[in-house]
Design brief:
Elements: E1 2-7, H1 13-24, E2 28-30, H2 31-41, H3 44-54, H4 61-71, E3 81-84, H5 90-99, E4 104-109, H6 112-120, E5 122-124, E6 131-133, H7 161-184, E7 188-192, H8 197-210
Parallel strand pairs: 1-3, 1-4, 2-3, 4-7
Antiparallel strand pairs: 5-6
């Protein structure tokens, strides 16, 4: 199962990707995480990417593509993967199709108002990266700490309502060509993400199985 998760800020794509990762034991690959790992290792690609990131600039497509390509050659992706944060441009989408064609692109759709409310209640574990919400599922058992490692949960500074509204609009300005590209290739699956994880995930899994994309058995039945 090789899929891409896309959605505006607040759509919940990270939460749904996390669920699939945990239930089916396939890697959830975030480009941000890949970049940080390459920088930490001091690889040539990582050092080049760091120069752009340190200046607050976007890493060029050719560097991003090479870093993602390298990650997708690792052994843990044999059963599949969930890409999050890539592709971000039409050139990246086309390059990915040449390297490893994906089975489906999941576009999680929510309204701007839902996105604003969700992000205003979002808290994140700085250690394991798990995302919770004090208003929606998944809620932490304790609003202050992570259920898994007990780390103090934090809020992102860019989750203020007006900033979220701007990020939402910029997302669709940027991603509409990518969405149309995958729609033309009949790889796009759009799903309403406003119902919460207990509603969205069974529906998404059903769609993936009906389309012959999800063929894995759960490695963890309790999710």
């Amino acid at each position: 199962m090789k899929i891409i998760m896309i959605g505006a800020p607040g759509a919940g794509k990270g939460t749904y990707a996390q669920y699939l990762r945990d239930k089916y034991c396939i890697p959830h690959i975030s480009t941000g995480d890949i970049f940080r790992e390459e920088v930490r290792k001091g690889t040539q690609l990582g050092l080049i990417a760091k120069q752009y990131m340190d200046r607050g600039e976007l890493v060029p497509d050719d560097i991003v593509i090479e870093i993602v390509k390298k990650r997708l050659q690792e052994k843990d992706v044999e059963k599949g993967f969930i890409l999050d944060g890539f592709p971000r441009t039409l050139n990246q989408a086309k390059a990915l199709e040449e390297v490893i064609p994906v089975d489906a692109v999941i576009h999680v759709v929510v309204s701007e108002e839902v996105a604003v409310r969700r992000l205003s209640g979002r808290v994140i574990c700085p250690v394991c990266g798990r995302v919770y919400n004090i208003y929606y599922e998944p809620k932490p058992k304790n609003d202050e700490v992570c259920d898994y490692d007990g780390s103090k949960l934090v809020r992102r500074q860019d989750d203020e309502p007006e900033i979220v509204r701007n990020r939402y609009r910029v997302f669709y300005q940027t991603f509409t060509p990518i969405i149309e590209y995958y729609k033309e290739r009949r790889k796009l699956i759009e799903i309403n993400g406003e119902g919460g994880i207990s509603f969205v995930m069974p529906l998404l899994e059903k769609l993936l199985r009906e389309n012959g994309i999800l063929k894995l058995s759960p490695c963890r039945e309790n999710l």
